[in-house]
Design brief:
Length: 402
């Protein structure tokens, strides 16, 4: 691990910092546009393929689930092959699979390609956090992580917006293929802009050593709780976005697919809140900012229970701000708390993060089917209440002494 005084570390405000931030923002855009472009299309899938809301959510839950599992394999590979090559291969493969998925006529064939795209997309989230932890100066890591998460938010917003609008005015397949093309362009930008790692040292790793490289993180006093935060925060957030479209398409709102796609543009709030939360965490400490952001997300969830469209949209905005702020802080905290095998620590956090999206995101469909939006609010509110309790516990965590 490079020391904090190492002159090879990237410092904020320098040209190399700006290139790195742009490259990782482009990579985050590509990965999350590909992953979440289907979210506003779930009601369309339910109608076109004759499946239930919970079954339609598999178009998102399957890639998230396979991505989660793949993180545990890709992370050790990056210790051998290097950070940038793994991320680059991931970006190109997931873009191509998205274009192909847009052409497949059957529901099961579409799900297979979506699952494969989640598998290949694992390279960026598995490695990016470790890359930043190794390459960034201690004073730059909070902002750089926030900018990475902001790029993720831009991709998530753009993917949802493009697919939703094009589904209404052209065809959802053309919209998905367009997103795949944009992801290819982003992969090329990443290849050109990201500087090679200067502090990464490749190492030979026997696969029998891999469980141990993951297992010691669970003996830490703080990391398991941070892993749990990722599971709860992401699972609840995805539930809101998965099923809000079903609610708003039905009476009394009866909104169009285009308007619902535009509502997803509130993701821009996440683009702002993630770097702001990272900067606030650097100034005031992660302990304070994490529980405040989580509490804000919980307040937004409760706001969506209203029957007024303005309050519902405002609630989605508040949930988005709180979620991205909390995720930015928790993910950067993992990178700083893990003193070795950082890629593995990051991949465990993100494995549970995406498992939350997959498992809890689909489980929310059961609550929606049986209790409507009230059931979703109670379910997700419970998840965020537990996340808040964990964040308060983490605020009392003794700092590392090294």
């Amino acid at each position: 691990m490079a020391s904090e005084g190492n002159e090879r570390l990237i410092r904020s405000g320098t040209p190399v910092f700006r290139r790195t931030a742009l490259a990782l923002a482009a990579a985050g855009f590509s990965t999350f546009a590909v992953l979440y472009a289907v979210q506003p299309l779930l009601p369309i899938f339910a109608d076109e393929f004759g499946v239930s809301p919970a079954e339609s959510s598999l178009a998102l839950s399957l890639p998230c689930g396979l991505l989660a599992v793949a993180l545990l394999v890709v992370s050790p590979l990056s210790e051998i092959w290097g950070r940038k090559p793994v991320m680059l291969a991931s970006l190109f493969a997931s873009a191509v699979l998205t274009i192909v998925a847009a052409l497949v006529p059957s529901w099961h064939g579409f799900l297979v390609l979506r699952a494969l795209s989640g598998l290949t997309a694992s390279g960026l989230p598995a490695v990016a956090m470790a890359y930043l932890a190794e390459e960034m100066d201690a004073q730059a890591i909070g902002l750089s992580m926030g900018l990475l998460v902001g790029g993720n938010a831009l991709g998530g917003m753009s993917g949802r917006l493009i697919s939703g609008v094009m589904a209404d005015h052209v065809n959802w397949r053309i919209g998905l293929a367009t997103i795949g093309g944009l992801a290819l362009v982003a992969a090329l930008a990443f290849w050109r802009w990201l500087p090679p790692a200067r502090n990464f040292v490749p190492r030979r790793m026997a696969w029998r050593e891999v469980p141990g490289s993951f297992g010691h993180h669970f003996r830490d006093a703080g990391l398991p709780w941070l892993f749990a935060e990722g599971f709860l925060l992401m699972g609840g957030f995805v539930c809101i976005y998965n099923y809000i479209g079903f609610r708003l398409l039905d009476p009394p709102f009866s909104l169009s697919q285009t308007v619902i796609g535009l509502i997803f543009s509130v993701y821009i709030a996440g683009m702002v809140s993630s770097p702001v939360a990272g900067e606030l965490a650097s100034r005031f400490g992660r302990r304070r900012v994490l529980w405040l952001a989580t509490a804000l997300g919980l307040a937004g969830i409760l706001m969506t229970a209203a029957d007024n469209i303005l309050l519902i949209v405002a609630g989605v905005v508040v949930v988005t701000i709180g979620f991205f702020g909390a995720h930015s802080v928790a993910s950067s905290w993992v990178g700083r708390r893990a003193l070795r095998d950082r890629a593995q620590a990051s991949s465990v956090y993100l494995c549970l993060y995406y498992l939350g999206s997959s498992v809890l995101g689909t489980a929310g469909g059961w609550f929606f089917a049986h209790s409507g939006w009230t059931g979703v609010v109670l379910f997700v509110g419970g998840l965020y209440g537990l996340a808040l309790a964990i964040a308060i516990r983490l605020s009392r965590l003794a700092p590392l002494t090294v």
